[in-house]
Structures are given as structure tokens and as C-alpha cells.
Amino acid sequence: MSKPVIVALDFADDFECIEFLSQFPKDTDLFVKIGLEMFCQFGYPFVRSLRNRGYKIFLDLKLHDIPNTVRRTCEMIAKWDVQMLTVHGSGGSEMIAAAKKGLEGSNTNLLAVTQLTSLGQSELSEELMIPQKSQDYVTHLAKLAFDNGADGVISSALEVPMIKEVTDESFLCVTPGIRPKTAQVGDQKCVATPKEARELGSDAIVVGRPITQSEDGFSAYKNICQEWNK
Length: 230
Prior knowledge:
Blueprint: E1 5-8, H1 14-21, E2 31-35, H2 36-52, E3 56-63, H3 67-77, E4 84-88, H4 93-102, E5 109-113, H5 121-127, H6 134-147, E6 152-154, H7 160-166, E7 172-175, H8 194-200, E8 204-207, H9 209-212, H10 217-228
Parallel strand pairs: 1-2, 1-8, 2-3, 3-4, 4-5, 5-6, 6-7, 7-8
């Protein structure tokens, strides 16, 4: 797998999204993320329309349900020709294995979400009552995902070296919360620059607002790609 910059398409409507994408030349090898909000609004037809444009798709649905339901859902998604799909690692070993089973025969990489980047140590211990340190919890879920057939995880760049250590170098680490030095952190608590993520071993980065809210989205994308690929 190449090391892509994945653009998070967090738009209020599909027209605004298509208008944004029109900035990109047709030959751009673009990898885009469709999250829960846009998917709930526009569904599979929107996914299909972007695939028909030649874009690679990261479908970030963070599935979390009983194993049988997740397996059957993944069996449907396996027909959609998307490149990445997420489940919650906290759904457990049986659910992760069921998701991978549902994707059999497709080229979709299964990624487990370890800890949401909006959650810090205080939320983990005080709200969720998880006694482990954040990094220990993340590496535990990454190892659980690895042992049950997942192709990778979503994690902070800071945790990538530890995840690679308990899994394998080929185990994908896809990193959200990426902000260039000049960008605001926003609601993300675990952030890194593209350069930092690359140095820490991330296999792909996900970037939203620094690109999608830029006056020139394509130039912002190119600048981040340049920093990421140095």
C-alpha cells in the first residue's frame, strides 16, 4: 500500500462536496474519507458516485454491534469496492473477526478504531472508567485487532511505534488529527503534523479542515502531500 493523504469530506451537503472536489484535476489520485454524517445523509449512491470518479474510498462508519450484525453489514459493504472500512476495536475479538469474515473476497482493508482522538486520559479514566493509561489501552486494542484479522488501526501518530512493536510492520496505522503547524487544533486532543506522523511510522494520514476549509483546497492538499512525502 502507498502512503496516501486521505481527505476527510466533512460537508453539510453533497453539492458543497462536489464543488470542493471540482478543484482537483481529474488525474489526481485522490483518497477520500466518507464519515458517518455524510453517509447517513447520502448513503451508498454517494459512495458509488465517488468511486465512479476514480477516487479511493475510506468508509469511516466505526461499526460496533453484535458480531452477526457486523458480519452481515460487512458482507454488503464488501460489494461496494471501498478500500478501507472501520469498526470499533472495543467491540471485542469476536466482532472484529466477524467483520473480517464479512469482507472475505473483497479488497477492503479492515481498520479498528482504538481510541477516538477527541478522548484524552481524563475522559478515559473518569468517564469510561478504564484504568489503563491511554497508550496501554490503545496498544492492547491494536494487538486484539491484529490477532483477530484486522489489517490495521486508526490511531494517534504518537502511538504508532508502540503499535508496530506489538503487531507487525505491515499492520497499517492510519492517523487522523493531522494539522500543519499553522492550523488550529480544534476539537482534536491527539494531533501531529504530517512530517511528525511520517517520522513516527504512520502508513496514511487523514486531513479534513486544513484542506476542506482552505480558500484553495487543492493547493492546501498539495502542500500537505509535499510535507508528508519529504
